[in-house]
Amino acid sequence: MTKRLDLVKNKELPYWTSTALTVLGAFLYLIQALIYAHTTIPGLDEGSYLLKGILYLRGIYAPFEPYGPLTNKAPFAFLIPGFAEYLFGAGLRTGRFFAVFLGLLTVLGVWITARRWGGKWIAAGAVWAFALNSMVIKIHAITASEVIIAATLAWMCVFVIAEERPLWQILLGSALATLAVLTRQNMAPLLPLLVLYIFWQHGKQKGIWAFVVMAVIFLAVHAYYWPRILTIWAPWLPQKFTPFLDPFRLPKDASPAWSPSLDLWSRAVAFFQGIRYHFIVVVGNIFAFALWLPARKWKSASGMRAAVFLSTSYFLLFAMHAWAAVASQYEHYSCVYCFSNYLTFFDPLGFILLVVMFSETWNPQPSRAGRFLAILLELIFSAGIGLSLFESVNQTILNLPVPRVRDGKILPGATILVDLVTNKFGLDLSLLKKYIALGLGLLAGLAILFLAFALWKRMKNAPNRAGFHFVLINSYLILGFILAPLMNVRESRVDCKEDLIAANEQLGNYLAAVIPPNSLVYWDGGLSFTPMTYVPNARIFPPQINSAYTYSLGGDSDALFRFSHWNSELSEQWKNSADVFIIESKRYSSWRAFLTPPHFEEYPKPPAAPSCNEGSALRIFHRIP
Question: What is the structure's pLDDT at 597?
Answer without folding.
Answer: 86
